[in-house]
Each structure stands twice: as structure tokens, then as C-alpha cells.
Amino acid sequence: MKEKNTFEVIYDIVCQIPYGQVATYGQIAQLAGNKRLARVVGYALHVNPDPQRIPCYRVVNRFGEVSDAFAFGGGNRQIELLEAEGVRFCDGKVDMDGYQWKKQRF
Questions:
Q1: Residue 22 phi/psi, 5° resolution?
Q2: Can you tell me the distance from the alpha carbon of 1 to that of 3, in angstroms, rounded to the nearest whole number?
Q3: Contact call for residues 27 and 99 (beta carbons, < 8 A)
Q4: Hey, which residues are catalytic here?
Q5: Dihedral of the alpha carbons of 12, 6, 70, 17, in degrees to the nearest 10
Q6: Helix locations, 1-106, DSSP H
Q7: For residue 21, which of 106, 92, 81, 91 has the smallest C-alpha distance?
Q8: Do residues 24 and 39 make contact, with C-beta atoms less than 8 angstroms apart?
Q9: Can you tell me whether residue 30 is helix, strand or coil?
Q10: pLDDT (tens place) for every residue of the chain, 106 residues total
């Protein structure tokens, strides 16, 4: 059986983020096995091959901020998608205490 590459592992983890919750780039990197890969996570999500299946909009930075460079419609679109799932924002940031995914291991 073929071993998954880093992007495939990242996409598998992002697919596990529950509806109405978010994760950080660093959190995804850590779950993928290397907490130093947060920028790689960002790049992988920017080139997401299947945004209908891989909910990259559920990934935010460590402060709960969306990406202005969100590849599928910009930061405003990312906010719209998250709010549609019930995620609340305070001062333009996701309420991380209320909506951050608590997954610890992949």
C-alpha cells in the first residue's frame, strides 16, 4: 500500500474537523506529525484540489483570524462559510474557546 504524502495527510486531517468548529494551521501541522509545518499546511490548503470535500475554510491562524488570501473567495467568503456553520466571531476573530476543535491525535 502506498504511503500518503504530506499534503494527503493534511487533507485527511482537515476532513475530520467537525462542522461548526475550526482548527489552526499549527494544530493541523502537529496532528500531521511536525508542528513546524504550519506554513506547509497553509500552502496545501491554498492549492486544495477538492474544496467541496476538503473544508479548508475551517482552518484559521492561532489568533482565530481568517486568511485574506483564502483561495476560494477571500477572507470574507471564509467568514461567510464559518458563520453559516454557526461559528461566532468577536472583533473579527473566531471565538477559539468556543469553536476550536479539541482533537489531540490523528
A1: -130, 165
A2: 6
A3: no
A4: 56
A5: 20
A6: 6-16, 25-31, 38-46, 74-84, 96-99
A7: 81
A8: no
A9: helix
A10: 678 899 999 999 999 999 999 999 999 999 999 999 999 999 999 999 999 999 999 999 999 999 887 777 777 899 999 999 999 999 999 999 999 999 766 5
89 neighbors 76 (Cβ within 8 angstroms)? no
pTM of the predicted protein model: 0.91
Output the nine-digit C-alpha cell for 100: 476550536
Q: What's the rounded Cα separation, in Å, for the pair 72 and 48?
A: 9
Query: How far is it, in rounded angstroms, from Cα 29 to Cα 27?
Result: 5
